[in-house]
Design goal:
2 domains; elongated; disordered N terminus
Length: 289
């Protein structure tokens, strides 16, 4: 029985919506400050306008930083194998939000700089900081490496997955420079299936030993041949023979990706040695490697 997690576009979309809406109130609550800034500007109260505008800007910057933190947290939570976010965006947002609140209370209320007023400003800033943490929690700090075997280390899996993502992104960039609908569709399919396999490895990192050569040979080959074709395409040096060769390579790669995704559904194993040898031979014949 396969232990691979079946891909679900609906679940992925719901997760994106969930984390996209998280922190929505951080953008809504500062709106009175924007209204106050506009009213003060109309009245010609320049100082009050600047204070309100600065406060509003501080809250909005906090919200934007927090949103980035929520996005990264969502990506981390959706994967069984993931690195903790390297930058604590939620913590930075909380600190910025607390500071913005304290300074707003200090300058916008017009109560002067008495010791009592300064204490109230500090208290409100700390209360806001605490409220943020109680509402949204702390940044994830521990890498998720559960279920990994002794045959592969967490760092090896992280490095392999990061390298695969870089290659997929390079293929995507090259694809955008190829203005051929048929070839573009083949590349879109290959990219989608490659990302599916990467996600499967994230959910089952023990597959890396057998998937490593697959990812390296196929992604390296696809990246090189696609970038080479895209550069030739930009120079208007494409010939019918080159088109046909490129199409054959893409069809071969896409077919193999389909077969391997089926193997994942069946028994969660990569049996690729023969297919890899066939691809290496074909890439050499086409002048790719």
């Amino acid at each position: 029985m396969s232990s691979a997690k079946r891909y679900s576009p609906e679940e992925k979309t719901l997760n994106k919506v969930k984390y996209g809406l998280k922190g929505f109130l951080l953008f809504v609550l500062p709106l009175p400050l924007l209204i106050a800034a506009i009213i003060s500007l109309v009245r010609g109260e320049i100082l009050h306008t600047l204070i309100s505008a600065a406060s509003f800007s501080g809250f909005m910057i906090s919200a934007l930083i927090a949103r980035e933190g929520f996005k990264r947290e969502g990506k981390y939570q959706r994967s069984r194998f993931a690195k903790a976010p390297t930058t604590p965006f939620k913590t930075i947002a909380a600190l910025f939000l607390g500071l913005s609140t304290g300074l707003t209370v200090l300058f916008a209320t017009g109560d002067g700089f008495s010791l009592h007023h300064i204490f109230n400003s500090v208290f409100m800033g700390v209360a806001t900081l605490l409220g943020f943490y109680l509402s949204y929690g702390l940044d994830p700090r521990k890498d998720k490496t559960g279920g990994i075997s002794l045959s592969v280390s967490a760092d090896e899996v992280f490095d392999a997955l990061e390298a695969a993502e870089v290659k997929i992104a390079a293929i995507e960039t090259a694809r955008k420079n190829i203005h051929n609908l048929e070839l573009d569709q083949h590349l879109r399919n290959i990219i989608k299936k490659a990302r599916h396999i990467v996600e499967t490895i994230k959910n089952n990192p023990n597959d890396l030993d057998r998937a490593r050569k697959f990812l390296k040979v196929y992604l390296d080959g696809t990246q090189r041949v696609t970038e080479s074709y895209a550069k030739t395409h930009e120079k208007d040096a494409i010939t019918d023979v080159l088109d046909a060769n490129f199409r054959r390579v893409l069809i071969s790669i896409e077919k193999t990706f389909d077969e391997q995704n089926e193997k994942l559904k069946e028994n969660d194993r990569f049996d690729l040695d023969v297919k890899i040898e066939v691809l290496e031979t074909q890439l050499k014949q086409e002048g790719v490697v």
